[in-house]
Amino acid sequence: MSEPALLRRLRAGREVEGQRLGDYELLEVLARGGQGFVLEARHEGLELRVALKVFDPQGSAASPERFREEARVLARLRHPNLPRVLHLGEEGGVLFAALDLVEGPTLEEVLDEGLPEPEWSARAAAEVADALTHVHAHGLIHRDVKPPNVVLEGEAPGARRAVLVDFGLVKRDPNASAFASLEALELSRSNEVKGSPEFMAPEQADPDVAPLGPAADLFGLGATLYFLLTGRPPFRGETTDELLREVLRATPARPRSVNRAVPPWLDALCMQALAKDADGRPPSARAFAQALRAGLRGESADTSGRESDLEEIVELGEPEPAERDEPP
Which residues are catalytic? Predict the structure, then answer.
């Protein structure tokens, strides 16, 4: 059986505008990754623009079973700081998933205009922590929290919300009871180093350090906050191996020593999230978000939290997400 013409076109780097995939009109290629391609597309019946992930069997992380399972798991997440999975389908031998099209600059691109105010950075980090609270409550670990994976959605700069994207490395938390009915297909093989070294937790850089859990995402968020406060990642190296050694052994300069505008409470919270030992980080994403907002209010930025936080969230549910267009 010959390969679909669309996949040959995408691999060759040819334009896709005007091509069709099921009910979707293809507009342009947005990105290419290990699983395939991300396109901007429009659902013709609803006139709804979406991000269309197209699976490529020749991709470096290509597994159709994993692609389908990832989409099914993420479709259960509903939160204003996360994109929704709207559709999973296959047309003419091409497997694809439609997601919310999140438009706006990333946290990495924000720094092109200079360092933001520390208080602004704290508010953005709190929104990402809200998203991680929801992700962790459903038994998942993102594993790639970094500035390019947070998009600021909205027209007015003061009204933008931070949306955590790119769940290509999502992994089930083996210690979580939520979603226990999902069967044994592992979303990402646990014996491989996965993530971006500059923002990677020590237990990701070396699986022998400690079991991987939600605290790894808090480290990634702390590294992202560090980047916003200082204009640089907390760890740097000439090679990947050198960078991983820094992640495992080095202590970064405190944000306040690089940028005196950083208030002491925010400096302390950022460094706590970057603790080498997972137990030294905030006890949960929810506790981290609460501490950030307390500091912004001029209150004590304490990350002490109850271990029952996640169970309460699962039982009581998250706040209703902001309204978006209905999926196709």
Answer: 144
